[in-house]
Amino acid sequence: MTHIDIISNADNVGGASRAAYRLYRTLLSTNIKAKMTVCEKKTDDWMVSGPSNMYEKVKHLIRPRIGGNLMRLQRTPNVNPHSANILPSNMAAAINGSDAAIVNLHWIGGETMSIEDLGRIRKPIVWTFHDMWAFCGSEHVVDDGPNARWREGYYPDNRPPCSSGLDIDRYTWNRKRRAWKNPIHVVTPSRWLADCVKQSALMKDWPVSVIPNVLDTTAFKPLDRLFSRHALSLPSDKKIILFGAMGGSRSFNKGYDLLIEALKVLSTHQGNILCVVFGQSEPEHLPDIPFPIQWMGHIGDDATLALLYSAADVMIIPSRQENLPQSGTEAHACGCPVVAFNCTGLPEVVDHCVTGYLATPYRPDDLAHGIEWVLEDKERHTNLRIAARKKTENLWSARSVIPAYLNVYELAQLGHRATVDLRNLRVN
Q1: Is the same domain home to 185 and 237?
Q2: At what angle do helices 256-266 and 364-376 cross, to 10 degrees?
Q3: Most buried of 113, 168, 300, 419 (most Cβ within 10 A)?
Q4: pLDDT tens figures, 13-23
Q5: What CATH number is attached to the domain comprising 28?
Q6: Is the confidence at residue 96, as pLDDT, over 50?
Q7: pLDDT at 89 over 70
Q8: pTM metric for this prediction
Q9: Per the domain annotation, does 18 fall within a domain?
Q10: What share of residues in the chain are helix, strand, coil (percent, to 5)?
Q11: Is residue 373 assigned to a domain?
């Protein structure tokens, strides 16, 4: 029986894997045959296929560590994750021998499969991008300026300053160029990332569709604020500013430093505020801000996340670069306004002064102004909450996202048949 095979490094480790898992579960809920295959299985979903024996588990545990050690041969000022995906893998053989009608790749960094093995897949492929890795070298997040290497091509003379050692970024990019002969249908959750794909030297001729990550709008919905705060042991009489990111304080790209500066500016205007941070536990060195902070740690279940968003007055996403952050769409689904910078994919989450506030990049003072603007007027805040929920229902619900994916799957099958026919013509 044919099906759609969702392939991801994991099913519940970070935003990309959660997005892939949500798509998989939503396809099933709409009576579409689907399967999910992962290297690292974290859920107890028996229908998700992960490593089946101890050998497979150890192999998938060791592969990213070996890949990480290889990356040490390159010195780069880019502190974001890198993946060379150089280790041999046999995933293509398993995929080609399966009865999958469509292969939907998601985040496959961290040595999920080799670059060369991906090029050996002979099934129709749809590839959902959650970062920039596919059209870059080994970088997952990189500057999107006009002289970025992914725009020009990776050459010896355009390596970033302060880089040294082996140029693994260039080596990885050239391997992709050689291995990926036929264009793959790409899905990006944001128009910004789609534009990057179209402007890239590697994939400028590949077909691209913009489809946002799907949300379960019955799980993420506005809940009673007092109930939510009581359930999470949060005070009922404070204005709660929410910030969430996996290891947020350790990631320059997440803009934690900009948020701290904004909160210092905000202190001259606002009182009675509690900052709530999820995605990490309390650090050894506390930030120097004038407001109390409650650290919620990592939250892995949607029910608790929905309570947290419903309990908050405003969600802050101070990132310097984002695709379509699920923390923003989840917050909107629960009726929580979002304040973010007007850059990259963030304007596709926040409608300025309608569902939240878009601050001038990357000015902490305007970020602080946006927070104050959201909090200062009760009637305005209610209107923001209503508009945020309405946007969620219109753009990110299953009824909007799944038909768009089904259309792309059909296009991928048509494109695959055309490619096979062309190959046969060449053989003849």
Answers
A1: no
A2: 60
A3: 113
A4: 888 999 999 99
A5: 3.40.50
A6: yes
A7: yes
A8: 0.93
A9: yes
A10: 40, 15, 40
A11: yes
* 240 in the same domain as 143: no
pLDDT in tens, 350-399: 999 999 999 999 999 999 999 999 999 999 999 999 999 999 999 999 99
At 367, the amino acid letter reads: L
pLDDT of residue 359: 98
**Residue among 324, 319, 318, 320 at smallest CA distance from 191:** 324
Q: Which domain holds residue 299?
A: 225-395
Domain contains 423? yes
| Together in a domain, 189 and 327 | no
CA distance 156 to 158: 6
**Would 120 be classed as within a structural domain?**
yes
Nearest residue to 187 (alpha-carbon basis) of 306, 282, 379, 324? 324
Which pair of structure tokens corresponds to residue 289? 């801000």
Kindly tell me the burial class for residue 298, based on how many C-beta atoms sit within 10 Å of its own C-beta (0-12, 13-18, 19 or more): exposed
Mention every residue, 6+ apart, whose C-beta is less than 8 A from residue 308.
228, 232, 242, 276, 278, 296, 299
Give the helix ranges, DSSP H, for 324-397.
326-333, 364-376, 378-395
> Predicted confidence band at 2 (pLDDT cuts at 50, 70, 90)?
confident
Domain co-membership, 245 together with 139: no
Residue 138 and residue 206 in contact, taking contact as beta carbons nearer than 8 Å: no
Identity at 417, one-letter amino acid code:
R
How deeply is 37 buried, as exposed, middle or buried, from its count of CB atoms within 10 A (0-12, 13-18, 19+)?
A: buried
Query: Phi and psi for 275 in degrees, rounded to 5?
Result: -90, 130
Output the six-digit token pair for 53. Answer: 């024996």
* One domain, residues 298 and 317: yes
Q: Which residues of 323-332 are buried (b: 16+ CB within 10 A; e: fewer)?
A: bbbbbbbbbb
* Pair 177, 69 in one domain: yes
Reading the block at residue 386, the tokens are 């209503």
Cis status of the peptide bond prior to 24, with omega within 30 of 0: no
- The Cα–Cα gap between 214 and 392 comes to 10
Q: Are residues 278 and 354 in the same domain?
A: yes
Give how many domains the chain has, as a whole number. 2
